[in-house]
Specification:
Elements lengths: L1 H14 L2 H21 L3 H4 L9 H4 L14 H18 L4 H12 L4 H8 L3 H18 L1 H6 L5
Helix pairs in contact: 2-5, 2-6, 2-8, 5-6, 6-8, 7-8
Length: 151
């Protein structure tokens, strides 16, 4: 049974282009990072609630901001395996920098700010990002196509 599934995955990988695969991998990474950020922290919920320091907070005058990203059940199930890809990337040469770069881009940090932070040009930082996603896709090609994204 697993052998048939592996053959099907190989056939799918061969039919799809490299560029399409890297784009799908980048989408999976972005959604996994945003899902991780959107999930509640278990430990924070078990502590005492925050103290109310201002009167406008006590009576509900402050605006409640809904979360920007609402993960689907599929995003939640994809999150841990995809985050493992980032852990693998972190162990590679320049992987720490590249993993942080992928996480920053998923959270919407602009290219110019990343370039300023690293002291390089925007195009160089984009090359690092593209190389990081391509490295993940090259290592986990079969797994990338097993995951689907929610729209």
């Amino acid at each position: 049974m697993n052998d048939m599934r592996a053959q099907d995955t190989d056939a799918i990988c061969k039919r799809r282009s490299e560029k399409e695969g890297v784009a799908h991998c980048a989408t999976l990474l972005r959604r996994a990072i945003l899902t991780n950020d959107a999930l509640p922290d278990r430990y924070r919920q078990k502590t005492w609630p925050d103290y109310i320091r201002a009167p406008e907070d006590a009576y509900g005058y402050s605006q409640v901001r809904p979360p920007k990203f609402r993960p689907s059940p599929r995003d939640v199930s994809n999150m841990l395996p995809v985050m493992d890809w980032l852990c693998w990337l972190g162990g590679q040469t320049n992987g720490g920098r590249d993993a942080k770069l992928v996480m920053a881009r998923a959270r919407g940090v602009p290219w110019w700010r990343l370039a300023q932070r690293h002291g390089r040009s925007e195009r160089q930082v984009q090359r690092w990002f593209d190389g990081a996603v391509a490295a993940i896709y090259g290592r986990f090609r079969k797994q990338v196509w097993e995951f689907q994204t929610s729209k």
